[in-house]
Amino acid sequence: MVVKKKDTSPAKFEDNIFNIREFSKFEVIIPLKVEKFKIASENPKKGYPKIINGVFVIQYELAPEGQESKAEAEGL
């Protein structure tokens, strides 16, 4: 297991050369081949979404092969 080394804590905040973190909003787009993955409903599985170790997890039921999808993609 790799452990991250902690940043140093200098007397003055300005002297901390390791303070290069930036915080902002971001968006992650994961393209899925709609021919292979069809979502069965617009709502996620029961108990989702949830956060596990800082990762936002969403699960949906997939429609059986050959069945039409009920969910629609946003912004298309």
Beta-strand content bin: 5-15%
- Strands side by side in the biggest sheet: 1-2
DSSP helix count? 0
Distance between the termini: 43 Å
> Which structural class do the helices and strands define?
little secondary structure
List keywords for this structure.
single chain; about 80 residues; little secondary structure; two-stranded antiparallel sheet; elongated
Write the layout of secondary structure elements.
Elements: E1 50-52, E2 55-57
Antiparallel strand pairs: 1-2
Structure description:
The chain is mostly loops. It has a domain at 31-76. Helix content is 0%, strand content 8%. It has no helices and 2 strands. It has strands at 50-52, 55-57. The chain has a two-stranded antiparallel ribbon. A hairpin with a 2-residue loop joins strand 1 (50-52) and strand 2 (55-57). The mean pLDDT is 76.
Short description:
This protein has strands at 50-52, 55-57. The protein has 76 residues and is largely without helices or strands. A two-stranded antiparallel ribbon has the order 1-2.
